[in-house]
Amino acid sequence: METELPELFRRRTATTGEVFTWHSARASMANVTPEELERMVAASDVAARSLADSPVEVIAYACLVAVMCRGAGAAADVERRLSAAVSDAPNSPAIVSSAGALVDALRALGARRVALVTPYLRPLAEQVAETVVGEGFEVSELVALEVSDNVAVGRLDPEGLPEIARSLDLGSVDALVLSACVQMPSLPVVQQVEDELGVPVLTAATATARSILLALGLDPVVRGAGAALAARSPAAASAR
């Protein structure tokens, strides 16, 4: 969230001249386990309230797995709770979540059958996949890199992702989620994988950027960032 989101919006600024500022608040998590994820979600109210003092226009809750472990519909529940937590803030900021953003982006792409690449331990990855299924999609491929240390997730080399993507059966897939985690770096290779494999590619980060732009009332387009942030022709938009 603190690396790829600013880079996406830097690219946006280079194209449009719009200016964005970034503010962050952290909820502690060392290992990606169910217990720590639950504690982090519980702490998110305080983090959101501290950000709302800024005053910001949009607050994005980052951790996808913490929300998706709660099942289908959990993103909307968490977003409602955070909205209530900042309801008395000066600007009443909009609330988005990476979990809700990913589902929204997949729907906007008209995807039905998807492949997921995750850094999580296999049981957590399977919970994410079950939630994606519960939101109305079919998960045909699921990769779990089995990395539990949250810092180690952030240090994974994105240059390894194209090889992983090439190993998947993407023949009948409508979209590839190259990183179902905002902590796992992927932006340097998102467009490369999409161009090479000919399948729409998105990530938790690019989907979150899309939701932030929409919440700001802006067209969700950023160059070189894959399908979630690609400009669409009027004909393609109407077909969706």
Polypeptide structure, described:
The chain is an alpha/beta fold and 240 residues long. The protein has a single domain (4-222), classed as Rossmann fold (3-Layer(aba) Sandwich). Helices cover 47% and strands 12% of the residues. The strands form 2 sheets. Strands 4-3-5-6 form a 4-stranded parallel sheet, with helices on both faces. Strands 1-2 form a two-stranded parallel ribbon. Strand 3, helix 6 (122-134) and strand 4 (138-144) form a beta-alpha-beta unit. Helix 2 runs parallel beside helix 4 (74-85). It is globular. Residues 233-240 have low confidence and may be disordered.
CATH fold-level topology: Rossmann fold
Terminal CA distance? 29 Å
Shape: globular
Query: What Rg, in angstroms, do the CA atoms define?
Result: 17 Å
Residue stretches low in confidence (pLDDT < 50, at least 5 long) are: 233-240
DSSP strand tally: 6
Strand adjacency order, main sheet:
4-3-5-6
Structural class: alpha/beta
Count of helices? 11
Please give the domain count: 1
- The level 1 CATH classification is Alpha Beta
- Amount of helix: 40-55%
Query: H/E series, N to C?
Result: HHEHHEHEHEHHEHEHH
CATH architectural arrangement: 3-Layer(aba) Sandwich
Overall pLDDT score: 89
Content of β-strand: 5-15%
The biggest beta sheet is recorded as: 4 strands, parallel
List the defining traits of the structure above:
alpha/beta, 6 strands, four-stranded parallel beta sheet, 240 residues, Rossmann fold, two-stranded parallel ribbon
Compact description:
With 240 residues, the protein is α/β, with parallel strands linked by helices. The chain has helices at 4-16, 34-52, 64-68, 74-85, 98-108, 122-134, 150-154, 161-166, 187-197, 204-215, 234-239, and strands spanning 58-61, 94-97, 113-118, 138-144, 175-179, 201-203. Helix content is 47%, strand content 12%.
